[in-house]
Amino acid sequence: MIDYPALAALMAVIECRGFERAAQRLHISQSAVSQRIRQLEFRLGQPVLLRTNPPRPTELGQRLANHLQQVLQLEQGLLLDDEQAQTRLRIRLAVNADSLETWLAPALATAPEAQRMDFEMVVDDQDVGLRRMKNGEVMACICAAEQAVNGGLASFLGKLRYRALATPTFVERYQCGQALGQPQPDLAMIPSLIFNQDDHLQHRFLQTVNPQQPAPVYYHICPSAGGFIRMALAGLGYGMMPQIQVQEWLARGELVDIVPGYHLDVPLYWHYWQTESPLLKGLRKALTNSARAVLEP
Amino acid sequence: MIDYPALAALMAVIECRGFERAAQRLHISQSAVSQRIRQLEFRLGQPVLLRTNPPRPTELGQRLANHLQQVLQLEQGLLLDDEQAQTRLRIRLAVNADSLETWLAPALATAPEAQRMDFEMVVDDQDVGLRRMKNGEVMACICAAEQAVNGGLASFLGKLRYRALATPTFVERYQCGQALGQPQPDLAMIPSLIFNQDDHLQHRFLQTVNPQQPAPVYYHICPSAGGFIRMALAGLGYGMMPQIQVQEWLARGELVDIVPGYHLDVPLYWHYWQTESPLLKGLRKALTNSARAVLEP
């Protein structure tokens, strides 16, 4: 059996970012905190915590802290005395950047126990997100992959609709704006925006509308969703943006389609473990309902 | 002397994400591209390119590509024939996330040659940004450090003003909202938002208003500036946000101060090399002017 008081000490040090504050939170001495963690490391034969400032968990330490959170969540299902009801729970989620920028936060807030959850968002490409899930580093994952991991399930949330957008001035300067199916200029030569080197949306757009040259030749790289939109609004390039993120600019005509009629729907799935705690089940149901209202079916 | 045609081949492969498209861009055969790069590696005694899909530069390869960009920019100052005027230049900048989310893109667009630049944004903590600059991986860096690197200069841009904000409902639920200087509740116990583990703004806020407990105990982690604001708007926590990023919600009263009267100004500097090309000089002047209009003096 794992030494749970030691795990609680480990998690307190990580969350409070120090041994002294962890001791305060647990109402024990600082040396007791250190001793518990040393004993845990001795038993496991490897470190769980890097003694940096602030201390950081090793990969093993993170898995243990996450395991403790899952255990605490399961405990929630058993009993609800006063002390339990006071506990806040840390929920680590691997999510895609565009969900976090748009629909996810209001959806999380609708979960029954949302006010008692501390969310920790890990933003990754989808392959990395699913790997983190397999490693037990996160409790759930939102990504475009339909295939569940071993021991896990995947629930469809909806589709995030992307459109290739730029300012009207930009469209005029580069003489694009022809509807889908019409002859197009060489769109790969028109400055575009990509999020990072792993972002393939721009390529998927070009594969459809510009198949003879499906890779962008001139492009800006902007690994910040807000910055991405600002760069488009500043007329520096065109890019693939989630429609729900840019509604106000679309409504005001400040962003328009590069190829009217084109859009790309990216499906999103909630990946979770079959051994789902009641708390995470509540979160999943709330998210699924909220997603249905904002995403494409 | 460095083999510049080989560097041009290297940069084309990186930018076009493949040997075949690089060959098309350079109007040479694909085997000529491969041979130039192999010869470059043979001469340097180490690889410049990882043969992944898409190919990626090694650290040395990135430095060489960046050097080529600087040389091309210097060439711009010499002559301006038709071919030169057609060339697009890649400008790699290390920037802080909040500048990218707010004032930076419209400021870049005011640079005289902005329409011929492909910007590549690298978002880092400031220490990493300056290290990238020293390594020659980026051409300039925007960060809070005043001290220039060896051989570089730092120019003051202005200060980004942060306020600790939440929804009115949140302020009411946690009974905060007392003005600066008044007795405060234990703000470290109220759920807050931090960007990542290297984000110290929340700690600096608590050091001022809550000195007996200067580290947040309960907090969400959200490494996405847009998501950060959405989480605050969803009532999940309070957080330090750039005032210029949330003006609309402040104006509508949807975000209010946790401690009215408190703000934190973070200075921003443009770090650049003494051997500045005319093109980058134009960019710096335009940025400095734009920054003056939106940042605090």
Structural write-up:
- The structure is a homodimer of 297-residue chains.
- Chain A is an alpha/beta fold and 297 residues long.
- Among the domains of chain A are: 1-87, Arc Repressor Mutant, subunit A, CATH 1.10.10.10; 160-266, Periplasmic binding protein-like II (D-Maltodextrin-Binding Protein, domain 2, 3-Layer(aba) Sandwich).
- Chain A has 13 helices and eleven strands.
- Chain A has helices spanning 4-16, 19-26, 30-44, 59-78, 82-86, 97-101, 104-109, 126-134, 168-173, 201-209, 225-233, 247-251, 278-294; strands at 49-50, 56-57, 89-95, 117-123, 140-143, 152-166, 192-194, 219-221, 239-242, 256-257, 264-273.
- In chain A, strands 3, 4, 5, 6, 9, 10 and 11 form a seven-stranded mixed sheet that branches.
- In chain A, a hairpin with a 5-residue loop joins strand 1 and strand 2.
- In chain A, helix 1 (4-16) crosses helix 3 (30-44).
- The longest helix of chain A has 20 residues, at 59-78.
- The first copy, chain A, is elongated.
- The model of chain A has no long low-confidence stretch (mean pLDDT 89).
- The interface between A and B is large, with 47 and 47 residues.
